[in-house]
Amino acid sequence: MGLKDQQGQGPNYVPAYQTSGTPFVTSSAATGVQEGPVRVQFPYVTKTITVQNLDTSNGLRVAFTKSGSWAVGEAVGGSSHDKPQGNWTLEAYQGNNFFTLPGRTAAAGPSQVTLDVRCKEVYLMSNHATADVEFSLYAGLTGISTMQFPVLTASNLFKGVG
Length: 162
Known about the structure:
Blueprint: H1 15-18, E1 22-30, E2 38-41, E3 44-53, E4 60-63, E5 98-101, E6 111-115, E7 121-126, E8 133-145
Antiparallel strand pairs: 1-8, 2-7, 3-6, 3-8, 4-5, 4-7
């Protein structure tokens, strides 16, 4: 086997998930339902993700696709170039493909979840129509390029992601 025939790490390359992840950390504010989700793109495929809701009163939605961020029947928000033209409102017909982290409490502190998941992006959105929610996110990254990872969508037979 020559040097040109060597294969790189792919999405199913098990040793990449067995070693410690390279750290990726970000903190920001997720906008409300009317504005749409904040997209966090990772430079490499993740091994683990920890999301922390720092808000005291509003929940934080965590989804793996943009369309999965909305509940069925909610008006789909976003920047003006995302909205349809005309006098009608686009409503989510397929949704509820998110989970919600409740707001922090004085006794327990911030609510958080650690996910053992491989993905190349997550979408975070406030569970409130207009209020922003502060969050912190940590991801352990593999050495696998995001270009080698499939697009997570129902049309690619990934059910339950949006």
